[in-house]
Amino acid sequence: MMRAMRCLVLTCAWFMLATPALAGKTPPVAKAPVWRGQTSPSKAALARDKAQLAFQRDLVSVLAPRADAMPLLGAALLARPLFNQPPSNSFHSLIERAAQADGNGPAVSWIRLADCDARAATCPNPDALDTLLKQAPDNAAAWLVKLGVDARNQKEDAAREDLHAAAAAKVYDDYAGTSLKALADSVGVLPPPAATFDHTHAAGAVGMQTVMIFGLASTQPQPSLQLVAKLCENAGKDDSIKADCLRLAKLLEWGSSPLARSLGLHLRDVLVDDPAQQQQAKDARRNLIWQVQNFNQLLTRVQDDSSLAQHLLALARNGGTEMSLQLAALRDDNIPIDPPTDWQPRKAE
Questions:
Q1: How many CB atoms are located within 10 Å of the residue 103 CB?
Q2: Burial class of 246 by CB neighbour count within 10 A (0 to 12, 13 to 18, 19+)
Q3: Which single residue of 26, 88, 166, 325 has CA 20 to 30 Å from 297?
Q4: Taking CA 224 as the corner, what is the angle to CA 223 and CA 225, rounded to the nearest 5 degrees?
């Protein structure tokens, strides 16, 4: 009776938390900033927004005739937030072509997960998920996407199998590094018109390009990591779930993204019984927060630092993962990877 009750609780937790995270990651169209004291963006800012969107459409038009997967992936990512695209240059058309092109792989299928209709409850794209699981059966990220789908559909046994498969995987990769590379390679196929960037910022065109690619890449589809956290936290005395969660935690700690690493360290902190390991996990999360905050500060400088903007574009074009890019950027800017001993993350107010 108690086990049945606990299973019911877990099922409810899965159902409540298994929101279609992939559907909600559609990039918003860029809007001009509203500064303090203003009630609306300035005319100059609105004009830049319009010029940037036109530039983005032009990039898509230049890339769309390509026949290989990576330029088509870049075009699809650029087209995704654009409205009223010609059918042949739409996100749907371009990502479908990328999936059929030479050089396609799981990174394309990952973005194709977002080619769906949230209002029709078809997210993530089921065909893309099936393909992804065949292409990357050893990627925990793919199984965690499936876990979210099965949990949302209240398929508890299937979701439990998904967790086990994720724990048995070899890597966690959300392919953000590949998306960044595709965007960084794509954004340079045309010179940005002067109207697309604010001439009061020293980095000019390259600063605008860097902001564009990192902004678009930040909308990468993600599994419902909150669901995974709650499932593992609620494992209770179910040793098999706890064991899988601990195996998954080790994998996530070396995952491709800061979000994955943060979850892995959190799971180690709450699931292990050894106080020393708990403290190690807390210390590692503190280091991770330091790294993410400092990288975000680098991004705030790119519009006024052309050498930094060019360097971040070069790192993106080199490929790798989101995490490896961030660490390389910090090292290259002589920012310590570990924080000072007296540094603590700012507490949420």
A1: 13
A2: middle
A3: 26
A4: 95
Distance between CA atoms of residues 320 and 173, nearest Å: 10
Contacts of 317 (CB under 8 A, 6+ apart): 181, 184, 185
Contacts 24+ apart (CB under 8 A), 327-334: 327/291, 329/295, 329/298, 330/291, 330/294, 330/295, 330/298, 333/298, 333/308
C-alpha span between 295 and 324 (Å, rounded)? 12
Angle at 325 between CA 146 and CA 110, to 5 degrees: 25
Q: Which residue has the tokens 């006024």?
A: 304
Q: 32: helix, coil or strand?
A: coil
Q: Please tell me whether the peptide bond between 336 and the residue prior to it is cis, using omega within 30 degrees of 0.
A: no
Specify the residue for token string 């491709």. Answer: 256
Q: What is the mean pLDDT of residues 110-134?
A: 95
Residue 242 has pLDDT above 60, yes or no: yes
Q: Which residue has the tokens 């994720």?
A: 166
Closest residue by Cα to residue 114 from 100, 99, 101, 129: 129
* Domain definitions of the chain by residue range: 41-117
Q: State the pLDDT confidence band at 36, using cuts at 50, 70 and 90.
A: very low
Q: Of 23-37, 139-153, 260-274, which range is least confident?
A: 23-37
